[in-house]
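Re: the request from the purification team.
They wanted to know what the chain is likely to look like in 3D before they choose a buffer screen. I agreed to run a prediction and write the result into the notebook, where they can find it.
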Amino acid sequence: MNNLHGKNRIGHIAAEKSCLYAVASGKGGVGKSVIAFNLASYLALSNRVLLVDGDFQMGNLHLLANIAPAYGWQGVCMGRVDPHEAIKPVSDNLDLLASTGGRSDELLPDMQSLATSLNTLRNDITSYDYIIIDTPSGILPHTNLILNAVDEVILVTTPELTSISDCYALYKILISNNNHLTASLLVNREDRKEEVEYIYQKFVTITDQFLGRSPAFFGHLGEDSTLVESVALQQGVADFAPNSPAAKHFAAIAESLLSSRSQVEFNPQTINLNPVGADIKE
């Protein structure tokens, strides 16, 4: 899967329009970057995909992809390098626009330069069916700009109360700034259907009560040691363990994105039936 050298595919036949998704979280450590990388890998099985590292200070998608980038999105934003020089192939249908955060010569791009680059991704780099942007946790100004520029935000939470609370706070800020924002919720590190349903029910109860709207359900991912092993070996879980539970979960959420349908059917009689929002207050 990994490809350290080679030409990118900006010049391929243009797609009608790329779909832009951003993976976001209110709290760090929820597995967001691993999710973005593996989701992009699965989408690339049947689509042309560009994975973008939007964490300008601590980006690590190049490590997951086993690529040493000479240039990053920072350089593209600042006009030091053309996108076709910075985008590098990961697999046959998957390219990466990495972050070179942490290098002494790289600074945060200014907001206007970032906005221009986001416009380029949407309107000028048209050889991809999907563009997946991994963002840093929280809601710094750069992150906020990215999340308001995409077609849909995938919010990642875990069953931990603090993770759910921080995810709610992020969602609240996003829709307060952009009432037209489209978002969905992905529950990580839980594969029991009843628990996944309860977490989503809790989130919907709170958002409906205090915000008057709720994100759609995107999917869920359970705990699987093979995912940890695949990260250590810098491989996607589809290559490392294609028959593992983690691989099956990623295949399901990729299909959810492609079909725009939830892969879990909740019992409508249980949603909002119990006061599950009591432990999170506005």
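For the purification team: Strands lie at 19-24, 49-53, 88-91, 94-97, 130-134, 152-157, 183-188, 216-221.
Please add any questions underneath this entry.
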